[in-house]
Amino acid sequence: MGSTVGDGSFATVESAFESRGTRCAARIYLPSGDASVPVIVMAHGFGSVRELRLPAYAARFAEAGYAVVLFDYRTFGDSDGTPRQVLDIPSQLQDWRAAIAWARRLDRVDPTAVVAWGTSFAGGHVLTMGADGEDLAAIIAQVPHTDGPAAVRATGVRASLRLLPAALRDSWRAVRGAEPVYVDSIGVPGSVAVMTAPGAEDAVDRMVAASGYRRGDHAETVAARVVLRVGLYSPGRRAGTITCPTLIQVADGDDIAPARSARKAARRIRTSTVIAYPGGHFSPYLPPLFDSVIADQLTFLRGVVPTGRPDQSA
């Protein structure tokens, strides 16, 4: 394990776990005290890294008395794996399973109280975890990817066609074991990038600034082959098998992960709560909406996996 830092109410430890032989970097947040507490396992969205705004959420959870495991998928961020920036859906799901299993074994963690927290593409992954029968106390899915075809339609035909040549070249290179063909994860409308919704580029600028680093410090590309697979990945279709309490938060103006699809998935879940917010896909990560989003998550958590701390607050 790496060095420990904290602000008095919690400490953080840099660590890692193995996912089928690949080291995945993880930061553990532990609240002060000696009691066993619930743990929230968190991961980033499409082509991103854990440092992009997720520590802001993790710190609030730890301040409220929850342990947190915040990790990077293999080939992304501080995790190992080559070639880099390859978003392979089965591999990311395996990383989730490994992270959850590892989190259960941590000191001071209640292994019966594991929460899976995912945003955007990871929001789809946590729904898949629940549908696959992972023993979870709760799920939080923020602006989740739930319907592949709906996400492709939201991207638009022209934007998809701009990506197609790179996706085909990259898929062929993957078969041959050659280096990937990369495309930008985020771009302005009309550019060759996966997410080109109006305002997306500006939102990421603000998210990076709020996260304390600069554009370019972390790669913002992805191997183009994933473009051919996003439309085939629809976690919402299996949501009816999820049995744990699930919070789904949607943005009414989301033109990357459409709110309508997330609402449809939520209706299939036996115990679901849906909260809608104004704004677009990236609005929940930043003020002024961030405080409302995190407060609603903490209210949900207190209701389904309380820490037992009398001073829990949003």
The helix/strand order is: EEEEHEHEHEHHEEHEHEHEH
Query: If you compute it from the alpha carbons, what radius of gyration comes out, rounded to the nearest whole angstrom?
Result: 18 Å
* Strand numbers in spatial order across the main sheet: 1-2-3-5-4-6-7-11-12
Helicity, in percent? 25-40%
Q: Stretches where pLDDT falls below 50 for ≥5 residues?
A: none
Q: Main beta sheet, described? A: 9 strands, mixed
Report the sheet-strand fraction.
Answer: 15-25%
Number of helices: 9
Distance between the termini: 30 Å
Mean pLDDT: 95
- Give the strand tally: 12
Overall body shape: globular
Structural class, please?
alpha/beta
Fold and architecture overview:
The protein is an alpha/beta fold and 314 residues long. Helices cover 34% and strands 24% of the residues. The chain is built from nine helices and twelve strands. The strands form two sheets. A nine-stranded mixed sheet has the order 1-2-3-5-4-6-7-11-12, with helices on both faces. Strand 4 (37-43), helix 1 and strand 5 (67-71) form a beta-alpha-beta unit. The relative contact order is 0.15. The mean pLDDT is 95.
Compile the SSE list and pairings.
Layout: E1 4-6, E2 10-19, E3 22-31, E4 37-43, H1 54-63, E5 67-71, H2 89-104, E6 109-119, H3 121-131, E7 138-142, H4 148-155, H5 157-176, E8 182-186, E9 193-195, H6 200-211, E10 221-223, H7 227-230, E11 246-251, H8 259-268, E12 272-277, H9 289-304
Parallel strand pairs: 4-5, 4-6, 6-7, 7-11, 8-9, 11-12
Antiparallel strand pairs: 1-2, 2-3, 3-5, 8-10
Helix pairs in contact: 2-3
